[in-house]
Amino acid sequence: MNEMTTKRKKATVSEKENPCFKCKAQCCGHVAVPIDKPTAAGDFDDLRWYLAHKNVCVFVEDNDWYICFTTPCRFLSKNYRCEIYETRPAICRKYKTETCEGTSTEDPYDLKFDTIEQIEAYAKEYLNKRKARQKKGTLKA
Ligand code: SF4
Ligand code: SF4
């Protein structure tokens, strides 16, 4: 999502200070959709399938899991402006520059998986730990 209008005239000082003017609008380059947290082998197998596809990743942010498709918005112009700024979707309107990937210095992800191998390694460890807790009786089956 790119917060500046395509119909902007000469930029004012405050507009020049807006980080969106210097940014290539990473926020308009993907779609992230919440998914259930995986807890069983079958759930992880679904994630393997997602990650078998190009330009798909899975990430965790604030304990919420998402599938992410890297694909630019059709309405992102060549100079990284929103071509439908006045009617852009609510999700774009709510997006905050203060915490966006264009301005944040912190890694936004708690976890990020780009390949099948990465999710397999995570699943192995997670399921082993879960099994151990079930054996100890500290986790319900
Ligand atoms: S509609 Fe506009 S603000 Fe929203 S993702 Fe597309 S280019 Fe970005
Ligand atoms: S990533 Fe952030 S700074 Fe860049 S266009 Fe999007 S909201 Fe603006």
Can you characterise this structure?
Helix 2 (about 40-50) packs antiparallel against helix 4 (about 115-135). The protein is elongated. The chain is about 30% helix and about 15% strand. A 4-stranded antiparallel sheet has the order 1-3-2-4. It is α+β, with helices and mostly antiparallel strands. It has one domain (about 15-115). The longest helix has 21 residues, at about 115-135. A hairpin with a 2-residue loop joins strand 2 (about 55-60) and strand 3 (about 65-70). The chain has 4 helices and 4 strands. The structure holds iron/sulfur cluster (2 copies). One iron/sulfur cluster binds near residues 76, 82, 84 and 92. The site of one iron/sulfur cluster has 15 residues, from loops.
Features of the shown structure:
16% strand, binds iron/sulfur cluster, alpha+beta, four-stranded antiparallel β-sheet, disordered N terminus, 4 strands, 141 residues
What is this structure's SSE topology?
Blueprint: H1 13-17, E1 30-35, H2 41-51, E2 56-61, E3 64-70, H3 90-94, E4 111-113, H4 116-136
Antiparallel strand pairs: 1-3, 2-3, 2-4
Helix pairs in contact: 2-4
One iron/sulfur cluster binds at residues 1-3, 19-20, 23, 25-27, 95, 97, 100-103.
Give the overall average pLDDT.
87
> Radius of gyration, Cα only, in angstroms?
19 Å
Roughly what fraction of the amino acids lie in strands?
15-25%
Q: How far is the N terminus from the C terminus?
A: 42 Å
Uncertain segments: 2-11
Bound molecules: iron/sulfur cluster
